Amino acid sequence: MGGPDRACPVCAGQSALRWDGYSSSSWDIVRCTNCDMSYLKNPVPYEALEEDFAWEKTYAAKAAASSGSTPLSQGVRKLRTRLGILHRDKQQAFQRWFNNGHVLDVGCGSGQRLRPPLTPYGIELSKALHAQADTFMKAHGGYCAHGAGADTIWQFPKGKFDGILMFSYLEHEVEVNKVLTGAYHALKDDGAVFIRVPNFGSLNRRLIGAKWCGFRLPDHVNYFTLKTLTDTCRRAGFSTQLVNKISLPLDDNISVLLRKI
Ligand SMILES: [Zn+2]
Fold first, then answer.
1. How do 119-124 and 187-198 pair as beta strands?
2. Starting from the edge strand earliest in sequence, which strands make up the sheet with 187-198, in order?
3. How far does CA 127 lie from the centroid of its chain?
4. 49-260 to CATH, choices 3.30.428.10, 1.20.5.440, 3.40.50.150, 3.30.420.40
5. Scanning 61, 110, 122, 215, which has the fewest C-beta atoms within 10 Å of its C-beta?
């Protein structure tokens, strides 16, 4: 069922240890012995992802399988509300970080994450979602390109964007280094990249194990901690600022803002 084995997506190392508790007969989740990155060793090829494994289908399956498996989430939600994190206006943060400019949403889904005054652009692999995103984005001055993120991001002119968004995207991308160097190419010198990925270092993952909400096979092919995400981004020329600093140990996600070094 799985595809061919791949090397570490961060350092290209070939030596890795299997996470037996998180792997299955079809899928091998491993940890690189060189750089500590955890990843799916045998992901399926892109062509299959385009339709057979489109995220909207596996998301529904995962939601059913893991319902009730996040005992900490209630407490964490209350804590975040008290800290004012839950209600922070993402749009305002995007506008501030991205200078109210042209923003590319990589893996944009139906494409409605970015609103005016931001000008939305996107990349989406799922044919059905791409069509929805393109209609919405064209109505707001941008457009959505159809394809895989790591290839398609290189089609945009150098320095075009004030901001790039990778929201619940990078955990799906087999070619991590290629898409991040592509982001460096497509970004203005004073632009920023926002990345949100599942937090493999979270307490929930350790408590819940294989049913942790961050595991979604075969869609999630990369499992970042703050350290491995920071290392990965540095290799592409970015400094990393942690956005969810206070909640990180209990948070199922990591949110970071990248700037060109
Ligand atoms: Zn590695």
1. unpaired
2. 144-146, 119-124, 102-106, 161-167, 187-198, 253-260, 238-242
3. 19
4. 3.40.50.150
5. 61
Q: Where does the pLDDT of residue 2 fall: very low under 50, low under 70, confident under 90, or very high at 90 and above?
A: confident
Q: Hey, what are 228's tokens? A: 């491995």
Give residue-wise pLDDT tens across range 171-188: 999 999 999 999 999 999
Helix (H, G, I), strand (E, B) or coil at 166: strand
pLDDT tens for 39-93 read 999 998 766 665 555 555 655 565 555 544 455 556 666 655 555 444 457 888 9
Contact 205, 254 (CB under 8 A): no
Span from the CA of 221 to the centroid of ligand 1 (angstroms): 14
Cα(103) to centroid(ligand 1), Å: 30
pLDDT in tens, 198-209: 999 999 999 999
Please give the distance, rounded to the nearest whole angstrom, from the Cα atom of residue 60 to the centre of ligand 1: 31
3-class SS at 21? Answer: coil
Provide the whole-model pTM: 0.86
CA distance 124 to 120: 13
